[in-house]
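S2.1 Query sequence (Chitooligosaccharide deacetylase)
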Amino acid sequence: MPEVCLTFDNGPEPEVTPGVLAVLARRRIRATFFLVGQKLRDPAARACAERAQAEGHAIGNHTLTHGAPLGTRDAAEAVAEITETDALLGTLHGPDRLFRPNGGGGALGPHLLNQAAAAHLVAHRHTVVLWNAVPGDFRDPDGWVETAQAMLGAARETVVLVLHDLPNGAMRHLDHFLGEAEQAGARFGAAPPESCVPLRRGVAGVDFARYVMPGAT
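Output structure tokens follow.
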């Protein structure tokens, strides 16, 4: 079983995120929460994000609305999805200024960013964290555990696992999944591998261009 970088997308959700945090605290697992910016306008949701940070979890930007991937948007719209979320995050943002684009169901490719968004991320020294395991808890709230276990079992490098603290019932299986994974030898709390970090504090890696729409603005 591999090392695992555990991440949660699309929160915070006051009905779900506190339960996720309780499970992580009980198991002493640190994770990264990539937040949808507009949700932070709800004081209850922001309180969840503040609790996550206070309990040692990292916080990142997952766009303002989680609409169409930024590579398919115009320049101003794409940049605003990043900047408005950064403003809402405020002190929740750590020194790495973590950012995760939305892929539309977990797909990787040049649809993730357009040229304007990519240039903004470089200029503002963001760190882009992608993924290599998306078990689909957002669409299969009961079957994702088996899928995730299979992904961990087949992994040959550190796994960046994407789950979602959404109110669809999937997270009621989180504790069971983590327990079985740990018993099988998985080690949670790892840093993401270089293959999943194409931009680090504004410095582009060799693969960064793969995630930027050519010629798009």
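The beta strands are 3-11, 32-35, 58-61, 98-99, 127-128, 159-164, 187-188, 199-200, 203-204. Helices lie at 17-27, 43-54, 75-89, 115-123, 144-154, 174-183.
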